[in-house]
Amino acid sequence: MATSQLSASLRNLPAFERFQPSALRFPSVRNVRIATLTQTSFPSLVVKATATVLAPKHTSVKPLGDRVLVKIKDAEEKTEGGILLPATAQSKPQGGEVVTVGEGKSAGKSKVDISVKVTGAQVVYSKYAGTEVEFNGSKHLILKDDDLIGILETDEVKDLKPLNDRVLIKVAEAEEKTAGGLLLTESTKEKPSIGTVIAVGPGALDEEGNRKALSITPGNTVLYSKYAGNDFKGKDGSAYIALRASDVMAILS
């Protein structure tokens, strides 16, 4: 009934030319019902979590093969100066504590153990490696042994013990002036790709499961691929990078 009256009253549109929209009233329209959204209103809406959450009945995870289970270190919530960081500005953690390891893998006729044998060891891993899982109220990462960069025996990055074919390099400082003496801002300084080797890993595995020693040694000044590896900052403010030996292009002398 209300719908037919409303249609009839709007047939003669010129009659409403002098009325403001706020002056219109529809007294015959009563009991207007505003529908509420139900759970089935959007059947295709899916919300994805950032981690796979295991059911409460699962209290342990046993990695298989050459995989390692690492408890992720919490992201830094403050800068060194004490400024609180929003979640979007907090750097993604690249380190954690080894919880348990797999049984290793086969290479040729040999059985190769996981590089990290000590439960509780503090490790650094590739930034975007592994699969994140959450259980017992903590975030963990399941990743391959080859994704482990090194072992941190102290809280100093310079003491990182590289694993496999990784190399730890102290990055040369960026040039602060151009050849003509013009001062450079931080955003215009070119990212260095030269540094001094601090430590090297035992080498990559060959098809028979044997380690092949690296041709790079600590103390070498090297030129490396510009956008390779994982960057770290030492407590003294120095920049370090850990990368694969194959990303080192030349030894400089």
TrEMBL record:
Q: What InterPro entries does this protein's entry cite?
A: Chaperonin_GroES, Chaperonin_GroES_sf, Chaprnonin_Cpn10_CS, Cpn20, GroES-like_sf
What do the Gene Ontology cellular component annotations say? chloroplast; mitochondrion
Q: Which family does it belong to?
A: Belongs to the GroES chaperonin family.
Q: Which SMART domains match?
A: Cpn10
Q: Which UniProt keywords apply?
A: Chaperone
Entry GO MF terms:
ATP binding; protein folding chaperone; protein-folding chaperone binding; transition metal ion binding; unfolded protein binding
Q: Which CDD domains does the entry mention? A: cpn10
The molecule here is called 20 kDa chaperonin, chloroplastic
Q: Which PROSITE patterns match?
A: CHAPERONINS_CPN10
Tell me which positions the record assigns to the signal sequence: none
Q: Does the keyword Chaperone apply?
A: yes
Q: Which NCBIfam families match?
A: PRK00364.2-2
One Pfam family from the record: Cpn10
- Specify whether Protein biosynthesis is a keyword of the entry: no
